């Protein structure tokens, strides 16, 4: 069985300042070894596979961080199902967005806030990019601020994703790396953000909604999406520089936060632990 690309890149030369982690990996095959033609799973089926695997770590009585996005939605669905059949009880969810709050409430998952529960046992969430050190880009779904607050308050943070999210260096997918900024003089910050990463061929764009109006986060802020031609070499350095800009609220680099990543691909489900 071919292993996922993470196995081939235990040392990421693009991340200069970090000692690569010795990743312990497990692989769970969803298909019979003997089957000649394994069924081709859709991307949604892969997301659900990763989500279901992560929910196996949830125990009754836990305080849970509930992520945002299409993969995290499968986690919330599964939790609702297990609660309704009595296989789980007494869990309390801390949602990372209004969307997730509505979904969880519709499934009768008891909800609370970080103010009332500042210590979370386990958070489960999706990601937009996962690098070999389990560092992440998150926030293409716009929920990065609450996600970062909830996941930072969690004793464990499991990331669930399909294998399209694997990258060798953050920013390397060519897709957006979001930065949440206050509305006031957003253009001033867009220009400053683009200037920070000139040498990476960065292009900064204000995120817009379906009507071409600025996308407004749950916190009333805008998002500037950064598009890189080359991966970020020093994630921690980049994060510090972004955060130092007045008017920047949060960025989508989630560094050193994930305790496990569950990746579903056509070769199976792979669990990578710190
Ligand atoms: O960070 C996020 C939302 O802010 C999501 O976790 C991320 O965008 C992945 O979403 P999906 O599971 O739909 O691919």
List the helices and strands and how they pair.
Layout: H1 5-8, E1 24-28, H2 43-55, E2 63-66, H3 70-84, E3 92-95, H4 98-106, E4 120-125, E5 129-130, E6 136-137, H5 144-152, E7 154-162, E8 177-181, H6 186-196, E9 203-206, E10 222-227, H7 235-243, E11 248-251, E12 253-254, E13 260-265, E14 268-273
Parallel strand pairs: 2-3, 2-4, 4-7, 7-13
Antiparallel strand pairs: 1-14, 5-6, 6-12, 8-10, 8-11, 9-10, 13-14
Bound molecules: ribulose-5-phosphate.
Q: What this model shows, in words?
A:
It contains seven helices and 14 strands. The protein is α/β, with parallel strands linked by helices. It folds into two domains: 5-168 and 255-273, 3-Layer(aba) Sandwich (Rossmann fold); 177-250, Alpha-Beta Plaits. The model is unreliable at 1-24 and 29-35 (pLDDT under 50). Bound molecules: ribulose-5-phosphate (5RP). Ribulose-5-phosphate (5RP) binds next to helix 3 and helix 5.
Number of domains: 2
Cα-to-Cα separation, first versus last residue? 23 Å
CATH architecture classification of the largest domain: 3-Layer(aba) Sandwich
What's the helical proportion of residues?
Answer: 25-40%
Radius of gyration over alpha carbons?
19 Å
**Broad structural category:** alpha/beta
Task: List SSEs in N-to-C order.
Answer: HEHEHEHEEEHEEHEEHEEEE
The major sheet is characterized as:
7 strands, mixed
Q: What is the third-level CATH name, the topology of the largest domain? A: Rossmann fold
Q: How many helical elements? A: 7
């Amino acid at each position: 069985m071919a292993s996922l690309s993470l196995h081939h890149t235990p040392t990421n030369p693009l991340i200069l300042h970090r000692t690569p982690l010795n990743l312990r990996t497990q692989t769970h095959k969803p298909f019979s070894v003997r089957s000649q033609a394994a069924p081709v799973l859709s991307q949604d089926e892969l997301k659900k596979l990763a989500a279901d695997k992560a929910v196996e770590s949830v125990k009754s009585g836990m305080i849970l961080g509930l992520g945002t996005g299409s993969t995290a939605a499968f986690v919330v669905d599964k939790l609702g199902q297990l609660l309704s059949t009595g296989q789980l009880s007494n869990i309390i969810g801390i949602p990372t967005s209004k969307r997730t709050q509505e979904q969880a409430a519709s499934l009768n998952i008891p909800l609370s806030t970080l103010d009332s529960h500042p210590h979370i046992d386990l958070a489960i969430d999706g990601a937009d990019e996962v690098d070999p050190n389990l560092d992440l880009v998150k926030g293409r779904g716009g929920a990065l601020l609450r996600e970062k607050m909830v996941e930072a308050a969690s004793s464990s943070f499991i990331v669930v994703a399909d294998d399209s999210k694997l990258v060798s260096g953050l920013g390397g997918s060519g897709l957006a790396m979001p930065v949440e900024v206050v509305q006031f003089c957003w253009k001033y910050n867009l220009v400053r953000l683009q200037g920070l990463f000139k040498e990476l061929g960065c292009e900064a764009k204000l995120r817009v909604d379906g009507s071409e109006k600025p996308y407004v986060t749950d916190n009333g802020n805008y998002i500037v999406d950064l598009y890189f031609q080359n991966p970020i070499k020093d994630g921690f350095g980049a994060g510090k520089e972004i955060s130092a800009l007045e008017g920047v609220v949060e960025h989508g680099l989630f560094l050193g936060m994930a305790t496990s990543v569950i990746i579903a691909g056509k070769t199976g489900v792979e669990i990578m632990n710190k």
